[in-house]
Amino acid sequence: MKISQEAVTDALVIKSYGDGFLLIQAPNKTPQQITHDCVLSPEGVSDALDLQTLAEQSGDSQIETIKSFNADVVIMVNNEGITPTILQITGNLARYGISLETMSLGAACRTYNLLLNEGRKPIVLIYFYN
Predict the structure, then answer these.
(1) How far apart are CA 105 and CA 18, in angstroms?
(2) Fewer CB in a 10 Å sphere around the end CB: N or C, the chain?
């Protein structure tokens, strides 16, 4: 008997990643390569959030956009470590009760897929640092 865990989700998953790209796929769909800054959610890819201005604004409209995803976990791709910008974004989101996890692209991709398999709803704020 072969026993294996199967994901019971129809969500968009990350198939692979590398410098400057993600390969995503929904069940029974063709894989799609992402090379631009965006928000990845189980339902799809959104360009509705300008990640570069999230720290600059007090962020009401930007934060409302993040809240509209109704995410269990908000992950931000961050390869630069703790910077004043990351601290500002984290503080802006915390004022609205949103916790932000920052991690490298690889860790964010693995965490996103793991959370999906647990039945949770993560989003990833992707900034490729061109």
Answers:
(1) 8
(2) N
Q: Which residues make Cβ contacts (< 8 Å) with residue 21, sequence separation at least 6?
A: 33, 34, 35
pTM: 0.85
CB neighbours of 6 closer than 8 A, spacing ≥ 6? none
Strands 73-77 and 44-46: unpaired
60-77 burial code (b ≥16 CB/10 A, e <16)? eebbebbeebebebbbbb
pLDDT-based confidence at 25, cuts 50/70/90? very high
**Which tokens go with 109?**
């991709």
